């Protein structure tokens, strides 16, 4: 550890100079009074570091020697910062006044809370939630992730319907508040995931140890979305399908895991052929590749699972005990408010 502080905002950057130019001024304006601000650079080649040195000399720069993805970038950077609270912030997020204080107050008042996310709205459509996080994340019985305010491709308008402080299953990595010591106790992000859904894995491991993950609506940020990798991208499709299977295999309690993996094979196959029928052959191939690489990862994943399952595990809350695929595509339940609250653990 090199730096010590109570609250640290860490922006991970890779060739995101245009986003730093657009969004860093507000981060500095609304954060420097309460937090130290860092930019962790993953070996950018677009003069991002030079821009920071010339325009934001007060911002501390951490230079990572390679672009090892989201997980590696944060793990390598946070090893250099000792802080009670980390705030992991995407470079394409616009923060607002008082975006930090309500969350820190919430965490100060309840030591069982391990991580929190604010309300995430769309920068390009400000009246709507943003795809990656919205009003807090959940998973269904087969491990598929969704959000309050966003189920699959249906994104809800923010009409203050989710303005309650609420326990959730996972908090988005686009703007993730997490206790520093807990992050290190958990071993940080799983670097084998590279990018996408590593925050779901981290929150799942956190909840297995009895910590809570929360949503705090009085803090609000605007996410541009797809800044590093557009939502409609075969590589992102590959990562999402591969990584979701890995984290399901790692963290699901024993008993029904084998059955659920089998069901996932079927459902993912349906999703793959749906892409093919829609003319998206590259996404079809990405799902096949994701599954193939998941099979290859099983020995390593089972070793991680053994280590996780050896600990004193607690019952996990905020799991939707039904199939969100069935609810959405067959029963046409497209809004979170249409789901029965009694169907959540």
Describe the structure.
This protein is of the alpha/beta class and 345 residues long. The protein has helices at 17-31, 48-55, 69-78, 101-109, 180-185, 198-208, 234-251, 257-277, 281-309, 324-330, and strands at 3-13, 36-42, 60-64, 81-90, 93-95, 113-122, 137-140, 145-147, 150-151, 154-155, 166-168, 175-179, 212-223, 319-320. The two termini are 38 Å apart. Helix 1 packs parallel to helix 2 (48-55) and helix 8 packs antiparallel against helix 9 (281-309). The chain folds into two domains: 3-223, Spore Coat Polysaccharide Biosynthesis Protein SpsA, Chain A; 234-314. It has ten helices and 14 strands. The strands form three sheets. Strands 1, 2, 3, 4, 5, 6, 11, 12 and 13 form a nine-stranded mixed β-sheet that branches. A three-stranded mixed β-sheet has the order 8-7-14, with no helix packed on it.
Average pLDDT works out at 95
Order of helices and strands: EHEHEHEEHEEEEEEEHHEHHHEH
Distance between the termini: 38 Å
**CATH class group of the largest domain:** Alpha Beta
User: What is the name of the CATH topology of the largest domain?
Assistant: Spore Coat Polysaccharide Biosynthesis Protein SpsA, Chain A
How much β-strand is present in the residues? 15-25%
Given helix and strand content, the structural type is: alpha/beta
Spans of 5+ residues with little confidence (pLDDT < 50)? none
What number of structural domains do the residues give?
A: 2
Work out the helix count: 10
Number of DSSP-assigned strands: 14
> What is the CATH H-level superfamily of the largest domain?
Spore Coat Polysaccharide Biosynthesis Protein SpsA, Chain A
| Major sheet description | 9 strands, mixed
Rg on CA atoms, Å: 19 Å
CATH architecture of the largest domain: Alpha-Beta Complex
Give the % helix.
Answer: 25-40%
Shape label: globular
